[in-house]
Design brief:
Elements (H helix, E strand, L loop, with lengths): L2 E4 L2 E9 L5 E5 L12 H8 L1 E5 L16 H14 L5 E6 L1 H12 L4 E7 L7 H16 L2 H12 L2 H6 L1 H12 L5 H13 L13 E6 L7 H10 L4 E5 L6 H4 L1 H14 L1
Parallel strand pairs: 3-4, 3-5, 5-6, 6-7, 7-8
Antiparallel strand pairs: 1-2, 2-4
Helix pairs in contact: 2-3, 4-8, 5-7
């Protein structure tokens, strides 16, 4: 697993797929681990050259005490791309990963061919701030099974959760059994609450696609519409019956939309 040294951290990443194909970087959400892109990793690797990083404080990357901001993570991802042979690459971000992708398109645009922002947000509104404040409190005070049971309630669409109870429970159990790293998790929640790039989005000049499920509770559809309205020429898709984890719940439809967008650019 290759790695690159950045500001106070070591960032590990995987390279998958054919190096002769277009380069695609998949940036994970709040959890920060590249493999959280299941089941999309195999699909993307079958068609593109995939860069799959673990963000600082997560996965195989190091655990620095500082640097847990969207801007620093965007700088880290830019360093990964340069280390992996350079850009420009198609950047696909989910949730907080979409926020990082926004800053890459703004501040590291020479490395960006296009951006796909999934279940994301330009800034946290009052609803989202209240939501993440509750999650932060749980992360500080509750046992991990309770923490991740709460996360599952807002990560997955109600219909999907009702139809896949064993998968949801397995996700909760797997997350709760991971080593406790609450300090990093709390800093990453704070990072989400602090993100606000709405005023700058109109200056993005890279092809942009926005995707959101119509049942996304964590970052509701209105936040994706706000992004699409702010960036000129944005292509937007709403996936029916999709929740925040729309890339996992509606995996075939999601890949169809993203690969079509990438192939156009």
């Amino acid at each position: 697993m290759p790695h690159v040294e950045v500001e106070n951290a070591t960032i590990h990443y995987q390279l998958l797929g054919n190096p002769e194909k277009p380069k695609v970087m998949l940036i994970a959400g709040l959890g920060g681990v590249g493999m959280s892109w299941w089941p999309q990793v195999e699909r993307f690797a079958g068609r593109y050259h995939v860069v799959l990083p673990d963000q600082r404080g997560t996965g195989q990357s190091s655990r620095p005490a500082d640097g847990h901001t969207m801007a620093q993570n965007a700088q880290d991802m830019a360093a990964v791309l340069r280390h992996a042979g350079g850009g420009p690459a198609h950047i696909v971000g989910s949730s907080a990963g979409g926020a990082i992708a926004q800053i890459m398109a703004l501040d590291h645009s020479e490395l960006v061919r296009s951006v796909t922002l999934t279940s994301s947000f330009a800034c946290a509104d009052a609803y989202m701030r209240r939501e993440f404040s509750v999650l932060r409190y749980l992360m500080e005070h509750a046992d991990l099974p309770t923490v991740y049971a709460a996360f599952a309630m807002i990560l997955f669409a109600p219909e999907y959760a009702a139809e896949n109870p064993e998968m949801i429970q397995a996700w909760i159990d797997r997350a709760a059994q991971a080593p406790e790293e609450r300090d990093v998790a709390i800093k990453r929640i704070d990072m989400v609450i602090a993100h606000d790039e709405l005023a700058r989005l109109g200056t993005i000049r890279r092809p942009t696609c926005v995707i959101c499920g119509d049942q996304d509770v964590l970052t509701p559809l209105s936040l994706s519409k706000q992004i699409a309205d702010a960036i000129p020429g944005t292509e937007m898709h709403v996936i029916e019956a999709g929740g925040h984890q729309v890339h996992a719940e509606k995996d075939s439809r999601y890949f169809e939309l993203v690969s079509s967008f990438i192939d156009k650019h």
